[in-house]
Amino acid sequence: MILSIESSCDDSSIAITELKSKKILFHKKISQESSHACYGGVVPELAARLHAKALPDILKQTKEFLPHIKAVAVTNEPGLSVTLVEGVTMAKALSIALRVPILPINHLKGHVYSLFLEQDERLPMGILLVSGGHTQVLHVKAYNDIEILATSLDDSFGESFDKVSKMLGYGYPGGVVVENLAKKGDEDRFNFTVPLSNSPKLAFSYSGLKNQVRLEIAKLSSEISEQDKCDICASFQKVAIKHLIQKIKKLLKLHRFEHFGIVGGASANIYLKNEFAKLFSNVQTPPLKYCSDNAAMIGRAALRAYELGEFCSFEAIDVRAKSSF
Ligand code: KG4
Ligand code: ZN
């Protein structure tokens, strides 16, 4: 079995995965969302302290599996350095105590492999990664052969939802809040312009759109009604997703993908999935509970790393805030 640990941002999670059957034997996640909500975003120092409490609390529940562990997998990039260190330190301690090697796992690869938790690995694949930290289109040819085809120049897709939620006076994370308000809104009321629509660049940008929303909210000032908020969310969401679709259509002129998947926290967004279903006949998304950060996807990626022998000693492993691919 592999024990996997995730602590790259605000979710403390541990999973146990069986090597042969790929079955998840244990999975637990403690989300810190409610602790960060009042700050409108993740406070790294607070997140690190909460991981230091939550990870051992979860680990306690895995005692029966510990004699069967063959390797400890841990997210070591990309993410908040101070929170990555919490998971990596636990992995080092387990590596020493259980006398097993460590498998360092890239968080973004974890999101890609969340697609293969309930079905067989199917690569090569085109992937749209939409999370709080990233907006990228990837050509995933193999576990260690990933090409970035497009990326965000500024804010990420998920982050823009978080910021719109915050500007409207709602908490963090904003993805679900904005999506739910949008359901009751008129998406044609506000004419936000689609970012980079006249640019040939294969890139994404969300800071300008966020600014357009900020100006509309300022115009409505304290008179803003519940319906105004729903209309803003609907108009914003429509344009945020139209931007993704426009750029992907451009990309499709250069690349052909037999399979396409959407991963990352924002892959839970129904409007997004419906729009992509119009472009691809069979868009893959992870099971809903594995869209946002979790250790099960890290365990699934680790099965591949284990087969490839990507082991690391507790002395050699390090954390990186940025992704190395
Ligand atoms: O992958 P994830 O759990 O963490 C990172 O690796 O960043 O993604 C979290 C992000 C947050 O920004 C959250 O607001 C966004 O995903 N998100 C959504 C939705 N659910 C979560 N964005 C849009 N629509 C959603 N339904
Ligand atoms: Zn993530």
Describe this structure in words.
This protein has 325 residues and is α/β, with parallel strands linked by helices. It is 39% helix and 19% strand. It has helices at residues 33-36, 44-59, 81-98, 107-113, 157-167, 175-183, 207-220, 226-252, 270-277, 295-308; strands at 2-6, 11-17, 24-31, 71-77, 102-106, 125-130, 135-142, 145-152, 203-204, 260-263, 283-284. The strands form two sheets. Strands 9-8-7-6-10-11 form a six-stranded mixed sheet, sandwiched between helices. Strands 3-2-1-4-5 form a five-stranded mixed sheet, sandwiched between helices. β6 and β7 (135-142) form a beta hairpin. α2 runs parallel beside α3 and α8 (226-252) packs parallel to α9 (270-277). The relative contact order is 0.19. The site of zinc ion has 6 residues, from α4. The site of zinc ion (ZN) has 6 residues, from α4.
